[in-house]
Amino acid sequence: MTEIGFFPPPHYAPGEHIIFEKPEHTEWTIIAKLSQRNSQKEEVDIQAGLGPSYALATFRVRSDLDSQEAYMRVYLQVPNKGTEFFPPDERAKQAAPSHHREVEAIKAFYKQESTITPALLAIKEDIQDKQGFIPGGYVIHIVFQHVPGVRLAEDRLLPGWGAPLHTFFQKFNDLQREQIRMWFDKEYRKLMELGWVPSFPWASNLIWDASFSKLYFVDFREARKAGSRDEDVVDDGDEEEEEEEVPMCEIWGAWGLAIAPDSPKDRADLSKWKL
Question: What superkingdom heads the lineage (predicted)?
């Protein structure tokens, strides 16, 4: 199904310049649009607290200052299903604050000077004008670092369910995998301290830069507060303690750095895991 074009040219065409003032003045040029995903809700969804409706697009961009390439994500509030052609004053009634976890996570990483996640390079959080899809609704542009290295999975298909082994097992030998897990053990604790983790972690959320033995955690479009199962759950000491008690092999398995044995009774035996 073709997505509604909420990011039309000329504003989001290759070659278009976008100016930011935070965290400092920068200018970026769009190279290409990489993807778009629309999340338009029904009125019943809004009443259930699942709104607002939004569109999300990812672009490849280049700095006008030093030609550095990066990614730009745009979050745009859009009309609910069936209201796209309502008069502007009617659509304006849908205006709501943004609620995107990725934006909050990247801002939190920036404030804490994280070195294990893509750096925030530019951000602007604006309100749509009267010509916008939702007058008074939000539009957020956020530019973040394109980190070097190899993504440890190209998809989210789990081995053992008909899918082939992912990149981590295909392209790295035993010693290399052991080294990556060693760095993961160290950096994972840092990620927990930073306060945000992917909601459904996998090896596709990891990039390994072998040149500098550096592991990055990436893609927080679906994220949650560390130590909680939902962003509405308040972190407390008990939850953090429970997270620490999870065997490391189980955490490796969740992130695609190990494959659990077929039999549940063998999970406590590390020698039964594929490492």
Answer: Eukaryota
Q: CA–CA separation, 20 vs 27, rounded Å? A: 6
Claim to verify: residue 66 and residue 180 sit in the same structural domain: no
Structure tokens, 77 = 């509030």
pLDDT per residue as tens digits for the range 105-135: 999 999 999 999 999 999 999 999 999 999 9
Distance CA 199, CA 222 (A): 6
Q: What is the pLDDT of residues 188-200, one digit of tens each?
A: 999 999 999 999 9
Residue 204 lies inside a defined structural domain of this protein: yes
Cα–Cα distance between 246 and 229 in angstroms, integer? 15
What's the first-to-final CA gap in the chain, in angstroms? 40
Query: Residue with structure tokens 């796209």?
Result: 84
If one compares 229 and 6, the residue with the highest pLDDT of the two is 6
Rounded distance between C-alpha atoms, residue 147 and residue 128, angstroms: 31
Give the C-alpha distances (Å, rounded to integers) separating 42 from 36, 50, 92, 139, 181.
20, 9, 16, 20, 43
Q: Which of 71, 213, 201, 36 is nearest to 147 (CA)?
A: 71
Instruction: Report yes or no on 196 lying in a domain.
Output: yes
